User: Fold these one by one.
Assistant:
Number 1:
Amino acid sequence: MKKLIIAAVLAGVSLSASAADTIRFATEAGYAPFEFVDSNNQIQGFDIDLANAMCKEMQATCTFTNQSFDSLIPSLKFRRIDAVISGMDITAERLKQVAFTNAYYDNSAIFFAQKGKFADLAALKGKRVGIQNGTTHQKFLMDKHSEITAVPYDSYQNAVLDLKNGRIDAVFGDTAVVQEFLKKNPNLSTVGDKITDQSYFGSGLGIAVRQNNTELLGKMNDALAKVRQDGTYKALYTKWFQQ
Ligand code: ARG
């Protein structure tokens, strides 16, 4: 086998088929239940299970690395990775830089704070609200709520820590992630309604690949359709969002 590969290399035969067998994913794994690092230091979550199911379908080996959210798209463009799965909203702005698979999850965003402290969004006027750097939440706050002070964090958990010890007044994030925090923190609760404004929060979550990587994009969309069809998607959805 080794000889054959060497022969192929010497003959200048492209090995792209075998190179495509490894797909390097990156994520920011501080965003349960989409992605988080477990007590064994393994990256886990709905996104990881979904990507692995798709990789099985594509007969590819997938690797996952954990890095800051705002570095994900740059890493993709610089070819350090091949794909991003990170609870990432498919937005018009991001589509100028990367391509996305079909949506795999209907997303929305919501604020949360100490229970009973703020009756509605208007009550957050002049308050400090934590958001993660590079997210749609950050952009939405900057553009639509200049009366609120956006406090940027690299990790969402640090924002929640600061909320708990009173350094900030609220945190803004994706609904499923907020629900996960609320489960563990009964003295926190949501403020206002879910926000789905498509011009900010896009048309669902997608996996990002480089714009010129149409081959991988096609394979991923096929694999996604397949795991939806054979019940795998449904099982993962139940496992991570309905327990
Ligand atoms: N859905 C938001 C966005 O696309 C936030 C995603 C943050 N994800 C993460 N893994 N930290 O901007």
Note: The chain is about 40% helix and 20% strand.
Number 2:
Amino acid sequence: RRALHLAVAGAVAGPAVLRITRAHAAEFSLKAANNTPISHPLTVYMTKAADGIREETGGKVDIKLFPNNQLGGDTDMLSQLRSGALEFFTLSPLILATLVPAASISGVGFAWSSYDKLWPAMDGDFGAHVRAQIEKSGLFAFDRIWENGFRQTTSSTRPILKPEDFKGFKIRVPPSPMWTSMFKAFDAAPMTINFAEVYSALQTRIAEGQENPLTLIDSAKLYEVQKYLSKTNHMWDGFWLLSNGKVWRGLPQDVKTVIAKHFNTQAVAQRADMAQRAGTTEQDLKARGLAIHDVDTKAFQAKLQSAGFYKEWKGKFGDDAWALLEKHTGPIS
Ligand code: X2X
């Protein structure tokens, strides 16, 4: 079947390019999925990668993106990835830790003081250490991790201004041992809920609050069901783009090369885009009615320290991995 198709590419950022392609049935029809809204830069740049791959392979490799939990919550999508039903999936290193415990080390509380330390670490030996552990579990992680951001705390009941305000606070956390441990250390009452159900959990007040980077709070419209935002900045989070190891190894080398090139390139572009909008997102959230508070983050870190959080997690990751982390972050506690 040979048909001539007209397609308009580059609709979002660049000039519209009219191109004429001969459409073939795709030889490799693959699925990618994530948990972020359509407008979130993770979705936008994964779409750009899929478009670039389709274009460079003349339609031979067709990756269809299912954003915004269309295939289920993170826990479901991870199962689909492992069974081979889903080929590509982005996941927080901390949620991945339910399968690969070593993966959550990038999310240690208050570890990263700047992106100048973070990106070289994630793109260098520290990220390589984590990716090696991921591969042992039968999954494959692409070189460049995608950005989620530094996490901030929101609430519908009362502002969290000092560590004591967390006492008994019903906070939704993603499904991950480190998240639960961190908010227990804050004396909060963490409850595990996949992101797919966060909006409704907040709306029905099953949870009083949650924590996420500003871009996600904005794109998922959590300001509609939350009143206060405290800049606790308690941890950095990203998204590893994962594939099923067997599925990935089964693809021809030239196909793998093109896929990896576009995903890794767009991950770096997504980070830059997120950095650029950081300032305006806070203004947007203020305009949407969130009361935004700066807090003394040192006091929150001291609470984690005194509750034994660092001791516990250094013990879990082991001295070597912890030393590799601190090589990049400087002394953590
Ligand atoms: O579940 C969350 O809060 C989110 C979207 O930030 C993650 O993927 C960890």
Note: The longest helix spans residues 253-287.
